[in-house]
UniProtKB/TrEMBL annotation:
This is Glycoside hydrolase family 31 protein. Gene3D superfamilies: Glycosidases (3.20.20.80), glycosyl hydrolase (family 31) (2.60.40.1760), Golgi alpha-mannosidase II (2.60.40.1180). GO terms for biological process: carbohydrate metabolic process. Belongs to the glycosyl hydrolase 31 family. The lineage of its organism: Bacteria, Pseudomonadati, Pseudomonadota, Alphaproteobacteria, Sphingomonadales. It comes from Sphingomonas glacialis.
Length: 780
């Protein structure tokens, strides 16, 4: 047990440091509500709210009683909980649930067979029931298997849960295999840029259709097998205890409210984040970038953000701007602001040996290193070999990094930052962070790396709303103001098809702001089109002439991303602006770009609702139609806020597709206003200028007037009402850039009375508009 005791001391020291300054220092961890002994297995029960409880199991009491790992930042709260003991075991009860650590008899002497096959750990089982006594979930066992990782003697740790045949599972971050329901699969929950189907990102939060979610408290690489062979099994590569949270709720939104309470609020992004974000890998000069920005304005197309991607620097790790190609970056950003635009610039955590900061960082131990202190330089795979990784688990290192971003880059007028390679791309396994091995903290980097910029921005720019483009996530990363995307995906129809369920599971993981590089990131080089091409590629410069259906693919991807939380064009191709896909594609793209801007009042209200509730607004149908079994694994359509049902077209040459309309509501075709009953599958027309789009009966959809960007105050053009039930919608508006939204105000409640056919508002709208004068009732 000497090894376990050593780990206990290390963990206690780490926990006492308030999770290495990821969260403000808090009072010493209170004792758990219950600290139990099950024949040598120690079990701690620690409530955080009436519907949130943490279970920790270890063979060492101090480990069982220690605080959670990084990610969760809430304080334990046992208010309203009670603890009693009866024949069944120890029972912990709140107004929302009861949790029983089942009694375990002292083990009898083993039989001859049991000497070989009996478990080595004293068994523990835990059941969770609702306030009405129905079983919610049951943990049937736990495990610790000794092994050595990167020279450290440690354990694989895991737990198994019951899995009823009708249970379905969602979340766990980003997995691009193309399926929504995780049941019967084994998820490799680790950040992996090189995953075969596309980058995987681990957020170990899984929700079910049975009224609960599990937050798994271990940042090492983890495998999860939901519902496989009638059991849900979690196993992490490195650990000395099992620690997890159970969150219960009558609706999925209650689960996300619990996740928010446990790990932090999702901030409201700047309003510009809901408009078009224009990028390219890469703009090679100041003149090229400004030329694209001016191209949008001269053509009358709205645009909010221009992005300066990688290799604008003189050398990786210089944290500078190459004045040969960008002679006046301050003048460039000022020009963008004069056009009503904002800017984002990519900043990497990698430092070449020849860069000006490398020696200092190496001397301070602020770079990923081997056990002997040797700095890890580059990757052993791919043609991606130069540079060492900033150790952002060290608070001094990430504080220094923000200071250089502020002084060297933000000082030139750049608004927000793109933190690329946040997996990190330099895989830490086998190496050392300041807080421990890269294997032990494999999934942690995106949380700590983005927190440095979020906290630095809050300190040095307190009245300016933060935004970060982030390529990976971990528990709590949503609180750092991240907009996530699906990484460097292929520019193919197959990749587009996989994006839809990928995004729905990512948002189901408590990370509301996810999208993808419109058109794919990799250089367009898809297979020859199998069906007649729907768009003439004449005039397209975004791809080689041999990829004739790429404008069609880009249009379908753009239509889809019009209805994702953010709309960003990016990719490794000669041109990415919307006029560079051919004369036939341009007007279709312009149509959807203008639709996106018309929807900004709706989108911004959704963003504020997510800030308030924690619930995502790009939603798998299982969230809103839990009583319809047909949507449990329906991953190619989704809800976008409370009103829109979106069914993207992901097949080349398709001019129609089947769409299931969930039971429990009627649905209006957005394009024709035709009303359909729910609970049926229809064939929806999908010519190249139409994405199948439906509006739930009983919806209010505010539509904005056209503006060149969100820098122009947008009035409402109309308030569309889709009758069918009485309903309400909370509009929200503010200056779009400050943090005043945190203080309240700015909301106007619209109410529709279906019986009287009347809409009322709780106050005047933007610019003093009268809501009643803007109402347009569909179908009347």
């Amino acid at each position: 047990m000497a090894m376990v005791s050593a780990r206990r001391r290390a963990l206690a020291k780490w926990a006492g440091a308030a999770a290495f300054a990821l969260v403000p220092a808090v009072a010493a961890q209170a004792a758990p509500l219950g600290s139990l002994d099950r024949n040598g297995s120690h079990v701690s029960i620690e409530p955080y709210a009436p519907n949130i409880v943490r279970v920790t199991i270890a063979v060492d009491r101090d480990l069982a009683d220690a605080p959670p790992g990084p990610g969760p930042n809430a304080k334990p709260d046992a208010a309203g909980w009670s603890h009693s003991t009866d024949a069944s075991g120890d029972v912990f009860t709140s107004s929302a649930l009861s949790l029983t650590v089942n009694a375990q008899a002292w083990p009898k002497a083993p039989s001859q067979m049991e000497r070989y096959f009996a478990p080595s750990l004293p068994p523990v089982s835990v059941s969770v029931k609702g306030a009405d006594g129905h079983l919610i979930t049951q943990m049937n066992g736990w495990e610790m298997a000794p092994h050595t990782v990167a020279g450290e003697k440690t354990f694989k740790v895991g737990a198994s849960f019951a899995a009823p045949l009708d249970e379905h599972y969602y979340g766990l971050g980003q997995n691009q295999e193309g399926k929504l329901d995780l049941r019967g699969r084994t998820i490799d929950c680790r950040h992996n840029y090189d995953a075969p189907a596309g980058e995987t990102v681990c957020v170990p939060f899984m929700v079910t259709n049975k009224g609960y979610g599990i937050v798994w408290d271990n940042p090492s690489a983890t495998t999860v097998s939901p519902g496989l062979h009638n059991s849900t099994h979690w196993q992490s590569d490195v650990g000395e205890r099992v620690s997890f949270f159970v969150i219960t709720g009558a609706t999925t939104d209650e689960l996300y409210a619990g996740y928010t309470k446990l790990t932090g609020k999702t901030p409201l992004p700047p309003k510009a984040a809901f408009g078009l974000i224009q990028s390219k890998a890469r703009y090679e000069s100041q003149a090229e970038l400004l030329g694209v920005a001016e191209g949008y304005r001269s053509r009358g197309y709205p645009l909010d953000v221009m992005v300066l991607d990688w290799f604008y620097w003189t050398r990786m790790g210089q944290l500078d701007i190459d004045r040969t190609y960008f002679p006046d970056p301050a003048g460039m950003t000022a020009k963008l602001k004069g056009l009503g635009m904002r800017s984002i610039i990519s900043v990497w955590p990698r430092f070449e040996k020849e860069s000006r900061y490398f020696d200092m960082l190496a001397a301070k131990g602020w770079l990923l290193h081997d056990t002997d202190g040797t700095v890890v330089d580059g990757l052993p795979i791919r043609a991606d070999r130069a540079g060492a990784l900033l150790d952002s688990t060290n608070p001094d290192a990430r504080g220094w990094f923000w200071g250089k971003i502020r002084d060297n880059i933000a000082s030139q007028g750049f608004d927000w930052f793109w933190l690329d390679e946040t997996e990190p791309d330099l895989v830490p396994d086998g190496h050392q962070f300041s807080i421990g091995s890269g294997d032990r903290y494999h999934n942690l980097f995106p949380l700590v790396h983005t927190s440095g910029v979020a906290e630095g921005s809050a300190k040095d720019r307190p009245d300016f709303r933060n935004l970060i483009l982030c390529r990976a996530a971990y528990l709590g990363t949503q609180r750092n103001g991240c907009l996530f995307w699906s990484s460097d995906v292929q520019a193919t129809w197959e990749a587009l098809k996989r994006q839809v369920p990928t995004g729905l599971n990512f948002t189901a993981s408590g990370m509301a702001y996810w999208s993808s590089d419109t058109g794919g990131w990799q250089n367009p080089a898809g297979p020859k089109a199998e069906h007649p091409v729907l768009l003439d590629p004449a005039g397209a410069t975004a791809m080689a002439p041999s990829y004739a259906d790429y404008p069609e693919l880009f249009v379908r991807w753009f239509q889809y991303n019009t209805f994702t939380p953010t709309l960003r064009i990016h990719g490794q191709r000669p041109g990415t602006a919307i006029w560079e896909y051919g004369k036939a594609a341009e007007p279709v793209l312009a149509q959807y770009l203008k639709l996106r801007y018309a929807l900004i009042p709706y989108l911004y209200a959704m963003g504020h609702q997510t800030y308030t509730t924690g619930a995502p607004f790009m939603r798998g149908l299982f969230m809103d139609f839990p009583n319809d079994p047909k949507v449990a694994d329906l991953g190619d359509e989704y809800m976008f806020g409370p009103a829109f049902l979106v069914a993207p077209v992901t097949e080349q040459g398709a001019t129609s597709r089947s769409v299931y309309l969930p039971a429990g509501a009627d649905w209006y075709d957005y394009w024709t206003n035709e009303r359909h009953a729910g609970g049926q599958t229809i064939t929806a027309a999908a010519p190249i200028d139409k994405i199948p789009l439906f509006v739930r009966a009983g919806s209010i959809v505010p539509m904005g007037a056209q503006v060149p960007s969100t820098a122009t105050r947008q009035k409402l053009d109309s308030i569309r009402v889709y009758p069918g039930r009485s309903t309400s919608f909370t509009l929200y508006d503010d200056d779009g850039v400050s943090n005043a939204y945190r203080k309240g105000g700015g909301a106007t409640v619209l109410r529709w009375d279906d019986a009287s056919g009347r809409l009322t508002a709780s106050g005047k709208l933007t610019g003093g508009q009268d809501a009643a004068a803007l109402v347009s009732v569909v179908g009347r």
